Amino acid sequence: MAAKQDLAKTKHDIFDHVDNKLDDFRGDFVLLARKADKKNCSLVEILKKRKVITLKDKKNIFGMEPFAR
């Protein structure tokens, strides 16, 4: 019986570790995505300022996922 409990605890510990790693990965991914989004927003602003794109284009781009404004 003790071996079965040890196995269950080990299984639980492994799942906890994997969950923590997935949470860390998700956080890192969101951080990188937000940095890329910030760069893209800066680029859109520059293109609008230089009259390469229209205000409508700017609004359409900023309305896109994942971080719509």
Précis, in short:
The protein is mainly alpha-helical. It has helices at about 1-50, 55-60.
Features:
single chain; 69 residues; mainly alpha
Explain this structure.
With 69 residues, this protein is mainly alpha-helical. The chain has a domain at 24-69. Helices cover 81% and strands 0% of the residues. The protein has two helices and no strands. It has helices at 2-49, 55-62. It is rod-shaped. The mean pLDDT is 92.
Total strands: the figure is 0
N/C terminus separation: 57 Å
Task: Give the helix tally.
Answer: 2
Average pLDDT taken over every residue:
92
Which structural class do the helices and strands define? mainly alpha
| Unreliable residue stretches | none
Question: Which term fits the overall shape?
Answer: rod-shaped
Please write the string of helix (H) and strand (E) elements.
HH
> Largest sheet at a glance?
none
Tell me the helix content: over 70%
Strand content: under 5%
Measured on Cα atoms, how large is the radius of gyration?
A: 22 Å
